[in-house]
């Protein structure tokens, strides 16, 4: 029997708040064009290609070995908080606000999206090794500055604001669960 982690609980609370904000502000779920070539359990109804279709975050039902494979590729164990974060829901990125500004929590839309993430995280890790920086794993983008992202320190699970060029800038929180709990959800805009 599996137990729910603090990160999973925090993400559940965030998504519950995000859906509430979405309904309060727009009265409906976000919409995006249906793409049969990029399927997801998030779609709320089948549609014709290109038709605007409601979607929502949906809990993943099956465990993934994505982070075991990332750890094997890097010859390093991956912090369990980031594993819990990416293995909890299928979703498009989720907008949020914090004192530092607007950000998007990255999520996986489908298993193929997980493979894209795997390649990006491994590339990021190899770049960090080349620069002799400790391993961090990104999970959010800062909206106002494409050079900035938010990551988890793989060693201790602390959360950092990082720059692509300069590396870690400052610690934002002591844990991923605390960071997620500090976020204010923002309604997800429709995609064209």
UniProtKB/TrEMBL annotation:
Keyword list (alphabetical) reads: Cell inner membrane, Cell membrane, Membrane
> Which residues fall in a coiled-coil region?
none
Organism phylogeny: Bacteria, Pseudomonadati, Pseudomonadota, Gammaproteobacteria, Oceanospirillales
- Could you tell me which CDD domains the record lists for this protein? Syd
Q: Which domain of life is it from?
A: Bacteria
Native organism is: Marinobacterium nitratireducens
**Gene3D superfamilies recorded:** Syd protein
Please name the InterPro entries in this protein's record.
Syd (IPR009948), Syd_sf (IPR038228)
> This chain belongs to which protein, by name?
Protein Syd
Q: Where is this region: Disordered?
A: 26-55
This protein's GO cellular component annotations are: cytoplasmic side of plasma membrane
